[in-house]
Specification:
The protein has ten helices and 13 strands. By secondary structure, it is an alpha/beta fold. It has two domains: 4-221, Spore Coat Polysaccharide Biosynthesis Protein SpsA, Chain A, CATH 3.90.550.10; 232-308. It has an eight-stranded mixed beta sheet, sandwiched between helices. A three-stranded mixed beta sheet has the order 8-7-13, with no helix packed on it. Strand 9 (148-149) and strand 10 form a beta hairpin. Helix 1 packs parallel to helix 2, helix 7 (232-249) runs parallel beside helix 9 and helix 8 runs antiparallel to helix 9. The longest helix is centred in the C-terminal third of the chain and has 28 residues, at 279-306. It is globular.
Length: 339
């Protein structure tokens, strides 16, 4: 049994496999790491390409596209390893990228999840949107990152090179103890894709473990490899799933107030996107709310199982509004925030 299984969930991603898989193989020590491709019923010729060019790489083929959450849940079943390391196909790894992650987890058993610093593939001195230098969450459950707040991605000048506890690690490069992943039943299948890693990280912390960013490891992420950034479906998933997170993980004494404020703020987002002329994207927001209310009772049942902790116990919880700080106070960089 290898210590870590690097698992790539692929869906019609042949161009990224061509571009990055050989680099991953070259820069990953196969003495302690296996690389596995989980294919989400691709309709391009990804599987033929893998069979012809990388016959040594294990491939797990799913019968349909289960999305990110259930795709990984199904693909990882039966894999015996100490750590799962989930890696997007649109990522270029750097030299010795894996060793610092393993060292961090091996030396501190209280850490259940870690991840590398994520930089842009196109601007390698700048943080990338999905994850940057570690994920955080504000008082209204808006996610943001050290090095990226909303659309502002900072340059990496070494200002965030310390390893710190954070609230979540991006699913683009997500390392978790296999025992913890399986104990918590992995990702929530109802999320399909987007923010399922935030939900899982919240549950990990409810279980008493820490989430840490390992900045000695870095990767370069293309981003929007499966869904374009302005995709109405992506907008729908982000709004719906964020509401799921609130319903599942916020304690009762805070939950209704947060949902009320979020409804008001999300209507502002709806109007903003509408006036930008992105009608399909704008109307994906009320669609997200409709589907959330249909499933709110189900999320509530999960909350009773989770029994969420009070927010004051989370070290990386930001007890202010990142929306107010960013748009009204004009705070654009993480180092100016007051935790």
């Amino acid at each position: 049994m290898k210590k870590v299984t690097v698992a790539i969930l692929n869906w019609n991603g042949k161009k990224f496999l061509e571009q990055f898989l050989q680099i991953l193989l070259d820069k990953t020590n196969n003495e302690f790491a296996d690389i596995v491709i989980i294919d989400n019923a691709s309709t391009d010729d990804s599987l033929d390409y893998l069979k012809s060019n990388f016959p040594e790489v294990k491939t797990i083929v799913l019968e349909k596209n289960y999305g990110f959450a259930e795709g990984y849940n199904r693909g990882l079943k039966g894999i015996e390893t100490e750590y799962y390391l989930l890696l997007n196909s649109d990522i270029e790894v750097s030299d010795s990228w894996l060793e610092p992650l393993l060292d961090l987890m091996d030396n501190d058993k209280s850490i259940a999840v870690c991840g590398p610093k994520i930089l842009s593939y196109y601007e390698k001195d700048r943080f990338e949107y999905a994850g940057a230098g570690g994920g955080f969450i504000d008082k209204y459950a808006y996610p943001f990152c050290r090095g990226r707040i909303f659309e502002t991605c900072e340059k990496d000048l070494g200002q965030y090179d310390s390893n710190i506890e954070c609230f979540w690690i991006s699913g683009a490069a997500f390392m978790i103890r296999a025992e913890v992943f399986n104990l918590l039943n992995g990702f929530d299948n109802d999320f399909f894709a987007h923010q399922e890693e935030i939900d899982l990280c919240w549950r990990v912390q409810n279980s008493g473990y820490k989430i840490v960013i390992q900045t000695q490891s870095k990767i370069y992420h293309v981003g929007a490899g499966t869904l374009p950034k302005s995709s109405p479906f992506k907008t729908y998933l982000n709004f719906r799933n964020n509401l799921y997170i609130i319903e599942k993980n916020i304690p009762k004494y805070k939950r209704n107030k947060i949902k009320f404020v979020r409804f008001f703020l999300d209507q502002i987002a709806f109007v903003k996107i509408l006036f930008q002329g992105n009608f399909k994207e704008a109307f994906s927001i009320p669609k997200a709310y409709i589907h959330f209310w249909k499933n709110a009772k189900k999320m509530g049942k999960q909350r009773k199982i989770i029994k969420p902790k009070a927010l004051k116990y989370f070290k990386a919880y930001y007890n202010r509004s990142i929306v107010v700080d960013y748009y009204l106070r004009k705070i654009k960089t993480f180092d100016k925030l007051k935790f």
